[in-house]
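TL;DR need structure tokens for one chain.
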Amino acid sequence: METKDSRVSALAYRVEEAADAVGVSKSQIYELIRSGQLRTVKLGRRRLVPVQALADYIDGMTR
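>> reply
TL;DR here they are.
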């Protein structure tokens, strides 16, 4: 039985969640996606941003 405190780590975020996680607007995330700087995956009609893609993008900014 799963308790309220047990959580599964996210593997991917919705665009809104990705924006919140990085502290930018949704439109900035969409621009990064359009420019090819941020990888995404499609799941049905949903566009998801893998957590690793955000980490890779941020890592690339610090180099």
